Predict the 3D structure of the following.
Amino acid sequence: MNKEQIVAAEKQYYMPVFARNPIVLSYGKGPYVYDNEGNKYLDFLAGIAVNLLGHAHPKLVSAIAEQAGKLIHCSNLYYTEVQTLLAKKIAEVSGMDKVFICNSGAEANEGAMKLARKYAKKIHPDKIDIITAEHCFHGRTLATLTATAQPKYQKGFEPLPAGFKYVPFNNFSALEAAVDDQTCALMLEPVQGEGGINMPDEDYLAKVRTLCNDKKIVLIFDEIQSGMGRTGTMFACQQYGVKPDIMTVAKGLGGGVPIGAFMATNEVANVFSPGDHGTTFGGNPLVCAAANAVLAAIDEEGILSNVQTVGAYMAAALQQLKNKYPAIIQEIRGKGLMLGMQLNQPGADIVAGCLKKGLIINCTAGNVLRFVPSLNITKQHVDEFILILDSVLREKQ
Ligand SMILES: *Cc1c(COP(=O)(O)O)cnc(C)c1O
């Protein structure tokens, strides 16, 4: 099918929920993807912070191919070595004790909230409320979209599950005021992604940790976007020296295959007993082999230090663009290779302008350009990115 035929057939057969960009992608290599008309794009979105190692990374491709030839799926009624090795590795890098592997970010957050509810009810049966932060994003299932404190995602899907409360992000006194005897858990993204790359103050998460200890509240960090090396450490919370009781991860974990996980301390995890939670596909050998390959590559290829170096280089280059276009650009935010450019105007036409010139980025929260490229990009790729973005901004001023 050519592009027009694909676009028409998608309109006829696919549920109309996605506002797709007008290109048909067919393959990728490293930080580049190619459309079905032969055009090349520098991919600084990486499947929304998913393709950590870029496209078609040889180690990831061979790990998937090898495992596919052995055992793709067998259910969680049996043990597999790949899954156990992955659980061990995730526990080690997160500093958590026990791991549950599932298929997506929303599913990881669902599991995290179930676990928090079960644990907190043992402290007191009234402890049921889950507090989340304004502008957060936790997923699209009924419970996770209720956790997602943004009316635009909830409208039309009422009645929403009960037991959720919202507070402004990064506002400790508002949080203190919202907490009461019914509070079960607080779920936060250490760095908010979808909400516009919003950063906490340096001491916010530590204060939150202390409050949660004092009030016996389960602290859940949603590191689905900020985790897996994205900010220059394995998880963003590690840069703030704060450990949650439960952590969720997905997006980059499998380098592109659908996988998520939630992890917890033994104290919390051990309230689960057989039958409390489950999944048919979650943690199957295929996706675990992929995630093991991603984690091995992060170690072997010096990914974290690359994120730190290239991230700092990119942040500095974006800052220069801000100085050059003060009327358009309000602020540069973020850490590592999770960077955002707050604009003084909607970002959609800049995204479209970049696409025309061979650069893939996206805009979130209406006016924040979000840059979440693969973690193994080089300074040369950043130079190429800046050149295109600069030329698009120049036309907009
Ligand atoms: C993307 C995202 C989710 C949802 O993940 P899905 O895999 O789309 O269900 C949840 N939390 C955060 C922080 C995310 O960025």
About this structure: The pocket of pyridoxal-5'-phosphate is lined by residues 104-106, 109, 137-139, 189, 193-194, 222, 224-225, 250-251 (CB under 6 Å). The chain has 14 helices and 15 strands. The first helix runs from residue 3 to 13. The radius of gyration is 21 Å.
